[in-house]
Amino acid sequence: MLLSVEDLKIGFGLLEPLVGVDLGVDAGEILGLVGESGSGKSMTAMSIMGMLPLMGGRIKQGRIVFDGLDLTTINEGSYRKLRGGRIALITQNPMTSLDPVVRVGRQIDQASQLHLGLDRKEAKSRTIDLMDRMRIPSPQHAYDLFPHQLSGGLRQRIVIAMALAGDPDLLIADEPTTALDVTVQAQIIQLLVELVRDRGLGLILITHDMGVIAQTCDRVAVMYCGRVVEYGPVARLFDDPRHPYTRALISCIPQLGMAPGTLTGIPGMVPSSQNLPKGCRFHPRCDSVLDNCRLREPPMKTEDGRSVACFLHEGGQR
Amino acid sequence: MTPLLSVRKLSRVFSSNGGFLRKKRQFRAVSDVSFDVRRGDVLGVVGESGCGKSTLARLVLRLIEPSAGAVMFDGQDIASLPAGAIRPLRRHFQMVFQDPYSSIDPRLTVRDALLEPFQVQDIKMTKVAAKSKIDALLTEVSLPLSMADSYQHQLSGGQKQRVGIARALALSPALVVLDEPTASLDVSIQAQVIALLQELRDRLDLTYMFISHDLALVQYFCDRILVMYLGRIVEILPRGELPVHPYTKALMDSAFVPDPNQRRDIPRIYGEIPSGYDEPTGCAFVGRCPLAEARCSKSLPRLQSLSENHAVACHVQGPVNVPMEFQNAL
Amino acid sequence: MKGPNPRKFLLVLTPTPLSALSGIALLVLILLAVFAPWVSPYPYDVQNLSIANQAPSALHWFGTDDFGRDVLSRVIFGARTSLSVSLISISLSLFGGVIIGAFCGYLGGWVDRLGMSIVDLTWFFPEILLALLIVAILGPGSESTIIAIAIAYLAQFTRLTRTQIITLKRQTFVEASLSMGAGPLHIMMRRLLPNAIAPVIVVAMLSTGNAILLEATLGFFGMGAQPPIPSWGGMMSTGSSQLFNAPWVIVWPGIFVALSVIFINLFGDGILRALDVKARMRTQ
Q1: In 3-state terms, what secondary structure has residue B10?
Q2: Per-residue pLDDT at B142 exceeds 80
């Protein structure tokens, strides 16, 4: 495994926004993290990027192992070398991750100068090369533009090029296409998939869209209220969703040719982390509650390559 | 029966302020748009950002003044009425806004927000009548009655949007324009809201104009779909019919089907929507179109009917032009 | 519509102990000014040259000035002039500024350009210079001081209100009101002004402190309330000639000017913070 997160628990004061998170991603593989807002997807990304201390949180329990190195044990200085280097993050809004007064080409240069120690000329030719691979038209010309002169899709390509400039092994993309138009969104996702397949990167793709997950990922972790509730290979998870939440999320996606009245949504809403229900966190919204669900939190059960935290499947039976 | 809403040749041009060293420029937000909405129908308007769908919604409600064209609502042209004459009519056509966070005055409780339409329309109610009206509206959108005293910052996004819907329904309108009402909500909440809207339409005999960027959602929810690109309608298609215009096809191909067994390595269209300032002489989609021919960049394709409810504006995929002399033979 | 909950309102007004104490001190000062004839030990204008320039004593707590008048009584009566002049002028300025700013911001276009150009003229001068200029034209006295101060602060209230209105005008909830059929009056009075007014009021409160200073300065130059009516600035002006043999004549009004400005600022600060907290609660 390129990266594995084992039994991660984090705390902000008394709050514990993530509990018992287990997941892993290999080189050349895409792991999807999916769930509604407030499910802890971005928090997981922040934990892997080592950015919790900056936000006032800390890791209470568990390990994050990247290429044999336990990231929970290293100091901020070593983390800074990894961040933007071997582990890179792509955020939701390309406008806020670009410096508005620096030419976009220079911004990409800076990443490769910092992490690969290239000189300015080498960095520039590498940047042009990267921009070309991101299918940015006429990269020589685009190199000298400012972020506001580019469209949303091109800006996000620049952000991806910047993430790649440090030659990362692991890429974390946090809702990389939410701010983009439908047709552009498809282009960007396609680009990310190609990167993983061609360069053997590991990619953690965070999204709320089960459609994107189904079309791109190898493995999926479904998160709810700071817990992974189901984890497994994408095809099996979609063919036979075990957790009622997974099933509900899939049925929320409008599909072409769907009969009217079949889209119902999940009743209620995600509870806040200050106000979690007793027992299984999903039980107030669940359509198949057992008595046990109200009393205890279901443990994660792993069975032939897939795991689920639900009492319906406690013995591995339906 | 006459359609509830018929829009004819509606256009809106915005001009940017010229300044020092800057030319005054014209931006065609909506160009020459015509369509009908039948009573009880849901008309979907779909397109990417900058296609003019939000401007169209506001033109139809006369929240923006049109540059040209007519908007016939129940037989009356609201595009040409004086502004003062529109105000009492507004109770018949209401709007639900995209951003539930800013569409309710932060100083108001839910009760006050729901009473505002009555105040504005100068409808006097006794305290008891007002209370029962509020209760009825909250029940209509499945919110607990106790929520009447909450402020908007105490509600979740989905709840705010329900308040927005209740407020739009307060005056019992005939037409409700929904401007991306679910775009800022989670998918699970989006599905709830759509289900609610569907139920309300059936129960209250509403007519909707539903603006969205999500073709799959529009296909699911709407009876007829109007596809816009750069201010113009490129296709009008009924639910369930396959798209003909290359842009509608591209939109459809860009949807991510939630089924890993149906993976597609889609040759998705390249490029992005061009700016509306420099309108091309031909088809606006020509730069991104996989089927573009020479004539596409020379002349603007007109919207032509394929069948009763289906029309498309495309030179290549449009109806075959039958020369005049053979038309009688067919 | 319901009014605000009174207990909540008090809570908003007193977010920190310091600003609560300042509020109480201000209240005491205002009560002193209002009930000056009853609380002051002597009349403010009775001269007794035989006791001129006496140091503070049990009989005259703050001492006496060079006409033998009781400084304490004059400071209390002076509070009347200073506080009322600054409060009235700021209220006038606020009123005018909000009206002009709201109109300019709402209507935009040439009305806005014209209105703002005129108001901005007052920003070309430092406020003290502008106030002196206006008093010089109108002649000295409390009324002209009020007008001068009101005009000196007009631009800031106009600007602030206008910016608020322009930002609010673009909010979706205003469009929502329009879509229900609301007219300009409803939009302005129900949607725009109530949402715009809070920061303007806070600035007005903070400006009252500056207005007291400005009033004192004008008084010091002999442009304010005319003798024998006491004002803090005027007292300091007469006291300045006796600075070395009777410092109490200038020190006491000076202390009161400083204290009232400090109290107003602390109180205003607290309210600003309270509003800020409320705003943050809303956005969460």
Answers
A1: strand
A2: yes
* Beta carbons within 8 Å of C235's beta carbon, 6+ residues apart: C65, C71, C74, C75, C78, C219, C249, C250, C252, C253
Yes or no, beta carbons of C176 and B104 under 8 Å apart: yes
The answer to whether residue B50 sits within a structural domain is yes
Which residues, other chains included, contact A292 with Cβ-Cβ below 8 Å and sequence gap of 6+? A279, A298, A311
Give the mean pLDDT of C205-213. 89
- Reported as half-sphere exposure (CB side, CA atoms, 13 A), residue A39 has a value of 24
- Evaluate whether chains C and A are touching (3 or more beta carbon pairs less than 8 Å apart): no
What domains, with CATH codes, occur in chain A?
A: 3-86+168-313 (3.40.50.300), 94-167 (no CATH)
Chain B nearest CA to C209, separation (Å): 29
A-B CB pairs within 8 A amount to 137
**Domain count along chain C:** 1
Contacts of C214 (CB under 8 A, 6+ apart): C86, C127, C128, C131, C149, C152
Q: Which domain holds residue B253?
A: 5-257+274-321
Q: Which residue of B has its CA nearest to A151?
A: B272
Q: What CATH number is attached to the domain comprising B249? A: 3.40.50.300
- The reply to whether C121 falls in a domain is yes
Domain total for chain B?
1
Place of tokens 């997941």: A23
* Touch B-A: 3+ C-beta pairs under 8 A: yes
User: Nearest CA of chain C to the CA of B88: how many Å?
Assistant: 6
* CB < 8 Å to B240, chain A: 257
Residue C251 placed within a domain: yes
| Interface pTM, i.e. ipTM | 0.86
User: Taking CB atoms and an 8 Å cut-off, how many pairs form between chains B and C?
Assistant: 67
Does residue B268 form part of some domain? Answer: no
* Residue C4 is assigned to a structural domain of this protein: no
* Confidence label for B328 from pLDDT (cuts 50, 70 and 90): very low
**pLDDT value at residue C21:** 87
Range of the structural domain that residue C20 is part of: 16-41+55-283
The pLDDT of residue B278: 66
Asked if residue C72 belongs to a domain, the reply is yes
Whether B105 and C182 lie within 8 Å, measured CB to CB: no
Q: Residue A30 contacts by C-beta under 8 Å, 6 or more apart in sequence? A: A193, A196, A203, A204, A205, A216, A217, A218, A219
CA distance A61 to chain B (A): 30
Residue B265 lies in a domain: no
pLDDT at B265 (0 to 100)? 67
**Cβ–Cβ gap B258/A253 under 8 Å:** yes
The CATH number of whichever domain residue C154 belongs to comes to 1.10.3720.10
Q: Does the pLDDT of residue A242 top 50, yes or no?
A: yes
